[in-house]
Amino acid sequence: MIRYKLYQNKRKGSATQDMWYARAAVTGVTRLKDLADRIQRNCTAKKSDVIAVLTELVEVMTDELQAGHRVVLDGFGYFKVGMKTAPAESAKAFTPAQNVKSLHVLFQPEVKRSADGTRVKTFLTGAQVAEYDGYDAPGKKEEPTP
Question: What is the C-alpha to C-alpha distance for residues 123 and 114, in angstroms, rounded to an integer?
Answer without folding.
Answer: 14
